[in-house]
Model the fold of this input.
Amino acid sequence: MAKKLYIFGIGGTGSRVIKSLVMLLASGCKLKNDFDTVVPIIIDPDTSNGDLNRTKDILKLYQEIRNQVHQPEDFFSQEIKTVNELANKSTIVNSDYFQFNLNDVDQNTFSQYIGFNSLDTDYKNSNDDKNFTRLLYSEKNLNSNLNVGFKGNPNMGAIVLNQFTDSGDFKRFGQTFNDGDAIFIINSIFGGTGAAGFPLLLKNLRGNSDIPNSPKIKDAIIGGITYLPYFALNKKDEVNSDSFEDKAKIAIDYYNRTIIKQNKINYLYFIGNKGNTKHFEYAVGGKEQKNNAHFLELAGALAICDFCENINKTNNETQIKEFGIENNTDSIIFSDLNLNNQKQISKHLTKYKLFSEYLKIGLPKSLNVSRWTKSNIILVKKTENSFLDQKYFNSSEYKIQIFAFNNHFLSWLLEMEDNKPSFSPFNSISWNDALNLIKGEQLQKRCKSFKTIDIENCKLITSIDLRPTQDTIHTPLIKLFGKSTENVLNHFNLLKQENNG
Amino acid sequence: MNNLFATIYEALFGLYEAKFSLIFDTLFDYGGYNLLGFTFLVIPLMMFAGFYFLWKYPYGKFWHWLLWLIITFIITSGISLGISNNEIFLSENQQLIDALADPESGYEQYAYTLPLKYAFFNGLLSLIIGFLYSLILKQFSKIQIHLPF
Done:
């Protein structure tokens, strides 16, 4: 039975983990146990957040590309949909639908949001008390603009996020929820939005009877990943990364009492990295908050894969999982991951890396020269001509979708490489040594250039059904490279096969 | 085949000279024409089979094909030169041997002009045959199907 996985990404960390998951899915990773559709839902009041908007853009590109591929089996094989598409049976791709709207956070300060000025100071003769509120919220809290998030203050987040279950988006989520569907929540424990949003969301999922299909949601299998501090900021101001650890400890204690001990969640993954961290550029939110991708976000995406793989092994108790790697190193390569993770991602990431690097470095040499890029071959059967000609590579669909997505993919890898700990499984490559791309794998064979890909493409261009229709113009490119990169990397014994269990 | 090849060289290219019929009779009777004919048929076939099925170069352009054709012309001409030289000057036909040895007959002087002509015409034939082979072989080629066009 086809099932859906709803992934709630709360705050900036939520967005970045979803981005990593999308990259894995684009490269051909698939969720196990019949989860055929991923429904990402981002909850973030900071609507101009750089991380959020980049993730929304990537999700939109993924959908646009996938919609243009007929029955993808390799790259982009996992379906991603928005709640809006599911509820309205619509096919409109709109990046805004990946985010749940929060009311009244656009232009308001926190004090306006809670109606602080209308509170009474005479607590004896009134139901409310301005001074008591002052005990809970500092002047800075009260004057803080909500459109850049909660600046690491979960006490604010807990109030504002409590409303999102009343939203139309959340109701549509309930309407589309079916038996067998599962939920995964991503949050960071050391910030504002994620730390506050996670317990609130869980509480509503497990107990809010106003949500449509609430009995199904209440009993659904829910997993979550909580990020412990894994980066620091290069400036101490409204958000001070020195407080991350203390905030994390307090929040863990709270989670332990209210979530774990009460078995409110089936799987809870913890992940963090103490000490060995890089200082990110300081930003309290908004478009400046665009943190570089981090290996731990990829590990978070792997937690989602693990959750789906082990979903049938749940019991009544919360299972706690932690992520680890085999070798403690500053520069992680595939062989430093545990064998299961290696098999999960190395094949797919290598294939997609080769694909995207080829389009960047290799294509100019073969375009309109190599037969797989030529559509004007005469005195042959019509089917011998390629659809992947200059016209296709000059098309706006290719440039705006494939080229743009691949740029995001390559930037994502570069950012992880530049971070600490660095995830750098790939060598930088040139045309001549394109297949020397995996660190730790020294190729003995002579021809390591992109020529091998071109040869393989020439062989495959007519052997598999790559004909596009008007609505699926990326079918030839995506299917051709899914196969050709696999054949070439297999030929050079560079692929570790994925577990099918 | 012998008749066909003889017709090509003697009638089509007009190489036959009645005054020196011994040479042409020898080429006909001793299998010389067959050898020359197979040369212009087989060498382009081998060359273009290699071009379309063994040469794994995915960036082949028209000039690569043209160069291949020129090489085919040169090889065919070279081998044809050798064959026609052999067939004429090392013939087992005693009458021809005698005629070539007789300076008065003019045979030797005329015979020396022939191998170059056979080489040239065979080269020319290899260009035509090579082009035709290209049109056929490219249908089955995975990498050079787009050549010559």
Remarks:
- Chain B has a mean pLDDT of 93.
- Residues 2-140 of chain B form one domain.
- The two ends of chain B are 32 Å apart (CA to CA).
